Amino acid sequence: MRELIARRTYHLIMSSRSGFPPAADEWLVPSSGSRVLAVGQPTASMAARLHAAGHRVTLIEHQLDELVALQRRYPALELVAASAEGLPFQPCSFDVVVISQGMHLLAPGLALAEFARVLSAGGCLSLAYITRDDSVPWVRRLAAVLQTYDPELMTSGHLESVDALAANSYFPDVEERSFRLWVPITRDGMLTMVSSAPQLAGLSPADARPLLDAVGAIYDSSAKPPEPLALPYAVQCWRAEVDHSEFTSELDLAADGLQILL
Length: 262
Known about the structure:
Elements: H1 2-14, H2 22-28, E1 35-39, H3 44-52, E2 56-61, H4 64-73, E3 78-81, E4 94-100, H5 108-118, E5 119-132, H6 137-147, H7 160-166, E6 174-185, H8 187-195, H9 198-201, H10 205-222, E7 229-241
Parallel strand pairs: 1-2, 1-4, 2-3, 4-5
Antiparallel strand pairs: 5-7, 6-7
Helix pairs in contact: 6-10, 8-10
């Protein structure tokens, strides 16, 4: 599944110093000073960037141990223990809901209805996934080598979790943009990345040696010392404005809030 590959990719990129493309954050949350709901631990680094950019950000995470760790790492963020499928917020509380590398972890039917409920009129749901860019020849050679051991590694199938958004009546029009991201990696770093993949970590030393030699040879023939290679990735982004007309009942707000009758 490509979501599994995306999670492996995410950890490599988050450990790099390359930085996330600011243009992607700006496209996902286009208005300044927005009220943003960030969903889940994988979205925490994005939430911190959006907070630093002047947005009012609330991050939810349903696992308490993860929430405690996030509080230590991001003390400036407003954190709430909550599930995306049952949000403890009034209707129309946010301008944007953002999810990075995490839509596949949710129950889409329940979560999308909750996102629509807590978004204000004109608000949007924004998703981001980091995927491999196949346009570089040495990356295609690396993929061919790895897939002889694990056919799922570096595959380029569709992100199934995004299909639920495209088919949901609360978010009828979905826009898509892609941003380029380069992640520097050393020879040792590439060998470690390959050998730590779940289907490859269990190889015997005799079976792992030819694989690592082949990967090392690809690196040596492609790198220009002393510069490291740069792994090419795409930050794939989706943005969809909420359609409250699809609700069949009223959005009941607190007494001092705006009430939308549908």
